[in-house]
Design brief:
The chain has 240 residues and is an alpha/beta fold. The protein is built from seven helices and eleven strands. The chain has a single domain, classed as Class I glutamine amidotransferase (GATase) domain (Rossmann fold, 3-Layer(aba) Sandwich). Keywords: Hydrolase, Protease, Serine protease. Belongs to the peptidase S51 family.
Length: 240
């Protein structure tokens, strides 16, 4: 069965309220679920109870029931019984480390392959790719491997920006992704501006754009030394 994925770049767009720019997408994505399992492991400076409560509050108006995975006595069994899986942003290295610690990668992969809808933003989107080698985050912890969920056959780079402020002499995001392409020319990288998201269904992998995205294109595809702009409505099935 084809995966059902909603991969969002960020939790906000410009000055929007927490998760509100994406709320209608999230509601539609989990429409058949009575309860959605939330994975808060990317949170570092916010404890898991607080993080889960924040997500619950943000989605309460949309009748989406949220349960924090951290409250489960058996996280693997909780994944196996989930009707929907939602993964929050934060630090991607910490998130992946915790998924390895609880031995959850194979469980999530199997559940999603069975048709369970998966959604994530920022770090939660990052881990849906092949590896986390194109995250923007600092490696504050060391997971056993950079291999991630492999739910899509590409790398992801949420929060993509292409500004180069005057006087800034560090590498731009595009230059960093060019370094990755140099060493991995055959692996595509999907860069999502804030407010952009990738929706994957049985028939398509479509780029969407929320109101307020800065820039003419919500996403870019980096591969083999090229950078291709992706307008809203682009179906990645035709490109990767």
């Amino acid at each position: 069965m084809a995966p059902s994925l909603l991969l969002m770049s960020s939790s906000r767009v410009n000055d929007s309220e927490y998760l509100q720019a994406y709320a209608e997408f999230i509601k539609g994505h989990f429409d058949a679920a009575q309860e959605v399992l939330f994975i808060p492991y990317a949170g570092v400076t916010m404890d898991y109870d607080t993080y889960t409560a924040r997500v619950q509050q943000a989605l309460a108006a949309y009748d989406i029931r949220i349960k924090g995975l951290h409250t489960a006595n058996d996280p693997q069994a909780e994944i196996r019984s989930a009707e929907g899986i939602l993964v929050g942003g934060g630090n991607t290295f910490r998130l992946l480390q915790q998924l390895y610690h609880y031995d959850l990668l194979a469980e999530i992969q199997a559940k999603v392959k069975q048709g369970c809808p998966y959604a994530g933003w920022s770090a939660g989107a990052n881990i849906a790719g092949l590896t986390i080698r194109t995250t923007n985050d600092m490696p504050i912890v060391e997971p056993p491997s950079f291999r991630a969920l492999e739910l899509v056959p590409l790398q992801l780079n949420p929060h993509y920006v292409d500004v180069h402020p005057p006087g800034f002499h560090g590498e731009t995001r595009a230059q960093r992704l060019a370094e990755y392409m140099t060493l991995h020319p055959g692996t595509p990288v999907l860069a999502l501006r804030e407010g952009a998201l990738l929706e994957v269904s049985a028939s398509a992998q479509v780029i969407h754009c929320c109101t307020g995205v800065n820039g003419s294109d919500p996403a870019f595809l980096f591969r083999a030394g090229t950078q291709t702009p992706l307008p809203a409505g682009t179906d990645l099935n035709k490109l990767v």
